């Protein structure tokens, strides 16, 4: 099947590690697969290698490093270059291939804890570690995946820019993203010099796909075409626009939903209504701040 016009990433954060889902994704033309070193209680990589060693090479594979097991039993965040490098090496060994992209996973966790000055140094060292991993052939490219971009923007602006720049940026997208986060994400992309073709959206539904919830938002008014489509499909299409991204990561456990998402990527948006929506978000943000 021809791949969707706007790339869909099958994310394994909430998706079961199930061979059938991987096969269904490929059948629908979905060729991007995203996981992380810490997903499924640090077992995601092993599960992938066990259930689908022959399919892994069929996907453009991305993963993330930044969270590590601890003596407390809870995952701990670290930007320590040694830990990052070890995790990257384990990732390639476990999967039997080098990932297409490795993301620095939520670096704002350590940056916020350390403070702007020290945090910038930690971020710089981590960026250089990922850059060296690319040069060593442990991954084809690297990026930053962030849930909350504002601490990163503050730390980088304090020193102008990073010494090593990523080629990809993963961040929240969709109608539930606040104007403040959306604007900070755009600022971070500019600081990192990552264009739209290197930007990845995630969490397009904010963790909630219940139709009654989406019906109350009337997101279909931002599209330029009549149905048939449901509010969830409309929301998924809008995740490519708020803010602009090339691909969107989504977790799901029903293969039937994959075909719906592929069709949703082909819906058309109304640029005038979309701009009005963004202006409304900005106005609401200013009103709440005053």
Percent in strands: 5-15%
Q: Span between N and C termini?
A: 51 Å
Following the backbone from N to C, one meets helices and strands in this order, namely EHEHHEEEHEHHEHEHEHHEHH
CATH topology: TIM Barrel
Count of DSSP E strands? 10
CATH class, named: Alpha Beta
Indicate the structural class: alpha/beta
Number of individual domains: 1
Order of strands in the sheet with the most strands?
1-2-3-6-7-8-9-10
Low-confidence stretches: none
Principal-axis shape:
globular
The CATH architecture can be named as Alpha-Beta Barrel
Q: Provide the gyration radius in Å.
A: 19 Å
**Helix percent band:** 40-55%
Biggest beta sheet summary: 8 strands, parallel, barrel
CATH homologous superfamily caption: NADP-dependent oxidoreductase domain
Quick overview:
By secondary structure, the protein is of the alpha/beta class. Helices cover 44% and strands 14% of the residues. The protein has helices spanning 19-27, 39-42, 44-51, 81-95, 108-114, 116-135, 150-159, 179-192, 211-215, 231-238, 256-264, 271-289, and strands at residues 7-11, 32-34, 60-65, 67-68, 76-77, 101-105, 142-145, 168-172, 199-202, 247-250.
């Amino acid at each position: 099947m021809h791949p969707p016009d706007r790339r869909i990433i099958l994310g394994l954060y909430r998706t079961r590690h199930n061979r059938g889902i991987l096969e269904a994704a490929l059948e629908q033309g979905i060729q991007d697969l995203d996981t992380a070193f810490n997903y499924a209680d640090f077992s995601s990589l092993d599960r992938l290698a066990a259930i689908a060693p022959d399919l892994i090479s069929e996907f453009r594979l991305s993963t993330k490093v930044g969270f590590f097991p601890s003596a407390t039993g809870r995952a701990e965040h670290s930007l320590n270059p040694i830990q990052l490098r070890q995790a990257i090496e384990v990732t390639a060994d476990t999967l039997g291939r080098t990932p297409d992209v490795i993301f620095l996973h939520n670096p704002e966790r350590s940056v916020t804890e350390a403070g702007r000055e020290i945090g910038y140094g930690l971020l710089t060292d981590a960026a250089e570690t990922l850059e060296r991993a690319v040069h060593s052939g442990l991954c084809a490219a690297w990026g930053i995946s962030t849930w909350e971009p504002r601490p990163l923007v503050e730390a980088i602006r304090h020193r102008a820019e990073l010494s090593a720049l990523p080629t990809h940026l993963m961040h929240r997208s969709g109608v539930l993203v606040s104007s403040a986060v959306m604007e900070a994400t755009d600022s971070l992309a500019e600081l990192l010099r990552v264009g739209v073709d290197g930007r990845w959206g995630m969490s397009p539904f904010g963790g909630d796909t219940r139709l009654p919830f989406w019906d109350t938002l009337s997101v279909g008014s931002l599209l330029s075409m009549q149905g048939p489509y449901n509010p969830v499909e409309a929301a998924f299409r809008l995740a490519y626009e708020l803010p602009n991204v090339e691909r969107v990561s989504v977790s799901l456990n029903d293969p039937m939903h994959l075909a719906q998402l592929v069709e949703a990527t082909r819906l058309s948006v109304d640029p005038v209504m979309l701009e009005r929506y963004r202006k409304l978000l900005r106005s609401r943000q200013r009103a709440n701040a005053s």
